[in-house]
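Thread: Newbie trying to understand structure tokens

Hi all, I'm a second-year student working on a class project, and my supervisor (Dr. K.) asked me to get a predicted structure for one chain before our next meeting. I've only ever worked with sequences, so writing a 3D structure as a token string is new to me. If someone could post the tokens and maybe explain what I'm looking at, I'd be very grateful. Here's the chain:
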Amino acid sequence: MAVPIMQAVRVGAYVVKQHLKRRQRYPLVLMLEPLFRCNLACAGCGKIDYPAPILNQRLTVQECLDADTECGAPVIAVAGGEPLLHKEMPEIIEKLLARRKYVYLCTNALLLEKKLDDYKPNPFFSWDVHLDGDQETHDASVCQDGVYDRAVAAIRKAKERGFRVSINCTVFDGAKPERLAKFFDDVMAMGVDGIMTAPGYAYERAPDQAHFLNRQKTKQLFRDVFRLGKGKKWRFTQSPLFLNFLAGNETYHCTPWGKPLRNVFGWQKPCYLLGEGYAATFKELMEDTAWEQYGTGNYEKCADCMVHSGYESSAVIDAVKRPLHILKVALRGPQTEGEMAPEISLENQRPATYNYTEHVDSRMKEIAAKKAATRKVVVNEPAE
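---
Reply by user tm_fold:
Sure, no problem. This is what the structure looks like when written as tokens:
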């Protein structure tokens, strides 16, 4: 089992508790993004296209802890950018683990071997290494040769040190089922504890706009891959129902509040993938976001999305409602033959709006104002 049994039990108990309280919306995973800066410039990434003053911003240790306190989710995924560029990351992780939160530290692994001594194996902690496929595929995806080999070497070193390690595999148009299945075989042979996979989200700021999968291609690709994986012991860190969804067998609506994001701008509306606005507090995010305006069928930018940040929570909630269904899928694996589940109609979706410039301009003004205030304090300080 890719997810430790105690983690599965605790998260399951947390979900049942929310249902008993009749809470309509609640978080499952806190997506914590302490910085945007990265040491790669991947063609399919829309997370790093900001001016240098914004890329230089960092959440403080206290801001990260406050985000956890506000949100209260049992699992925290620390992403970026590249989190290992944050000088206070070891302290952030140590203090989150002291709160007995399950923490996944996402990394491209370029700095992993160098930073390993700053962390200790812990049953609540796992490295989550970005690998989009075999050597040729991954190096092309991250636009730099040699990254795959360095990541694999770091994975092996981390496993030797006793860490839990999973991989995060984003799939793009043009992926071949046989090649992806072989890659899953290879990472299992490396000894990784689990695989997280999903199609890439079509970030509007991503340099490569030609290789994002639409929903129909996503479903067929994963059906083909899972068919090749029948009888193999691939371990996924995701719900069996989410994998069944990827293969076209579930009609889920997005649950964007299930994985709320806190970054240097604030609490991002409506989800990890879309920056349509920002809330100052988690309470404001949950209560003031117009959730009904987002998701496949509601908004043009969400039309082809099948990413775990929106749909994994839908699958987990469904598992609580239909325990026999998840048991069946867990035992048999995702369905790879037969008719697919009905697709959500896009007929009434609203057109996309674009707010990137507005958010950047606002943040740049805030940064400039803070710098001006700091200079004023320094100038006015009395000489000793």
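A couple of things are worth pointing out once you decode it. The chain has one domain: 5-352. The chain is about 40% helix and 10% strand. Feel free to ask follow-ups in this thread.
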